[in-house]
Amino acid sequence: MLFRVSSQDPLPLHEQLAGSIRRALVDGKLKPGDRIPPAKELAEQLDINANTALRALRDLRDEGLLEFRRGRGIRVCPGAEVHGELQQLIVELLGEANRLGYTRADLITLIERTHP
């Protein structure tokens, strides 16, 4: 199975699924134009709620990684592999910043100071 989630992981299931799809993009297992299974099918494969899978897919759509087309399904957007790699780094940065007690606003301030 290409995507994985674990009930033992402290991250919410939708974030785990979104991260798993991002990793597949970065690793080259998914490429622009590839079809992603519908939320209901993903939910059945991963033994999670369909709304959880849909939330992950919508988050990725909002990030510009996936496109939803009526009658054509869900596909990886052109350029998503580069965008996915950067998005994965951002997720890791936010996690590390959280661990160190920094907020998103703190990070934005640091970035603006570092690269005006």
UniProtKB/TrEMBL annotation:
The keyword Transcription regulation applies. CDD domains: WHTH_GntR. Transmembrane segments: none annotated. Residues 11-79 form the HTH gntR-type domain. Keywords: DNA-binding, Transcription, Transcription regulation. Signal peptide: none annotated. GO terms for molecular function: DNA binding; DNA-binding transcription factor activity. InterPro entries: Tscrpt_reg_HTH_GntR (IPR000524), WH-like_DNA-bd_sf (IPR036388), WH_DNA-bd_sf (IPR036390). Pfam families: GntR (PF00392). This is GntR family transcriptional regulator. The lineage of its organism: Bacteria, Bacillati, Actinomycetota, Actinomycetes, Glycomycetales.
